[in-house]
Amino acid sequence: MTLASAQARPRRRIVASPGRWLIWALVAFFFVNLLGVIGTVVVNSLGRRWFSAWLPQGFTTHWYSDAWREFHLSDVLRVTLEVAVAVVVISVLIGVPAAYAMARRDFPLKRLVLLLFLLPVLLPPITYGIPMATVLYKFQLAGTLFGIIAANLVPTIPFVVLTMTPFIEQIDPRIEAAARMCGARTSSVMLRVLTPLLLPGVLAAGILVLVRTVGMFELTFLSSGDSTSTLVVALYYSVFSAGIRAQQSVDAMAVIYTGFMLVLLVVALRFINPTQLVTRVQDESART
Asked: Among 59, 127, 129, 283, which one has the highest count of C-beta atoms within 10 angstroms of its own C-beta?
């Protein structure tokens, strides 16, 4: 190593350090603002009166009980869980066999079918939510649990297909062939061979669908009614509907929703890497 190269290396490090400092400063600025917004909502949901001081004059938890009674959160959470569980079960039952067909079979217009699966995932839900809501209202399905479940299945089934396809492609087809050579029927191959291998992928897809369904606002809002509102729709109504409501009660409901979503996201991130999922969607869109 020459003296010139030894001197050039620290210079490059010094030149690059301002850029790294700028990136870290921007990241810190983002998180400080994020924590400030969330902290303001949390503190306001616990405060008695809060005007010009840095902190409220006192703290209480009665705003949460008021929000629970005023917004009927017990019914809202029940509807949210019913819709989410139904969407997860139906999406897995339909999406996993479809993903198996996409991974194992070559058939005419396969790329066109893959493109149809990609569209509900890539397009904003509002673009197809309004025409779909028109159809649901025409057949008097809007405002019912069946209508909300049907609306949420449109993006979640393709989501399961795109999530499960790489899991199925990683399984060696010779394992299935060996099981068939040993006399196993198709049902036995699916239940005893493929199901244990696909269980982590099915669990990951189900959790992600659960998170997506609980947080889906557009499709649920367009197809729900007064007695079939999920948590995110009820939060919207609490802010923008007619009437005078205490801001602390609205913030308490926002904290409940945020906490519920954070728990689901933490559980989901333990079972799947979102970077792999985004890469998979980009690869499939590039192929089509």
From this structure: 129
> Tokens representing 227?
């007695």
Rounded Cα–Cα distance for residues 163 and 169 (Å): 11
pTM above threshold 0.90: no
Question: Closest Cα partner for 231 from 255, 207, 208?
Answer: 255
How many helices and strands, by DSSP H and E, does the chain display?
13, 0
Q: Dmax of the chain from CA atoms?
A: 81
3-state secondary structure of 47: strand
Domain boundaries 62-287, corresponding CATH code = 1.10.3720.10
**How confident is the prediction for the chain on average, in pLDDT?**
80
- Of these ranges, 48-62, 123-137, 172-186, the one predicted with the greatest mean pLDDT is 123-137
Phi, psi at residue 59, to the nearest 5°?
A: -125, 145
Domain ranges, ordered by start, for the chain: 1-60, 62-287
Cβ-Cβ contacts under 8 Å for 37 (sequence gap 6 or more): none
Interval 42-82: pLDDT, tens: 887 887 766 666 677 778 888 888 888 888 888 888 999 99
3-state SS assignment for residue 8: helix
Distance CA 176, CA 184 (A): 9
Rounded CA-CA distance 235/73 in Å is 10
Tokens describing residue 16: 């690059």
How many whole angstroms separate alpha carbon 224 and alpha carbon 208? 22
Assess contact for 190 and 175: CB atoms under 8 A: no
